[in-house]
Amino acid sequence: MTTDARNVLGGPLQACSYDPLTGFFRDGCCRTDESDVGTHVVCARVTAEFLAYSTGRGNDLVTPRPQWRFAGLRPGDRWCLCVQRWREALRAGVAPPVVLDATHEAALQHVTLAELQQHAWRPTRNDSSQADS
Q1: The whole model's pTM is what?
Q2: Interval 108-128 mean pLDDT
Q3: What φ, ψ does residue 18 adopt, rounded to 5°?
Q4: Residues 79, 20: contact at Cβ < 8 Å?
Q5: What is the pLDDT of residue 68?
Q6: What is the rounded distance in angstroms from the CA atom of residue 105 to the CA atom of residue 111?
């Protein structure tokens, strides 16, 4: 996929996840445009705490929805989150780690780079840094 989209670090936007397939456009990237009213631009590696929080706020990301080809998320999955939900989770103390090179620069209209960097995902030896993780 060719795109001019930039990430929060100023580089080319990298893919967030192909499995599960994420993004407002379901192309694996946290791209956005004016039709994306939720601004799905934060590539996060979801945690159990965040998934429970999101469900409690009315956005169940765990339950499979076959009609939407959505298998449900598990802790460790990467997903393009709405920046406002990530910010809410940040204030609630349950913000999931962010994959900075796969987070769209539009996130900076709602949160600071410092906030994102403080929650940057840092892979360990057992983690894959690939978008298909």
Answers
A1: 0.89
A2: 88
A3: -105, -15
A4: yes
A5: 79
A6: 10
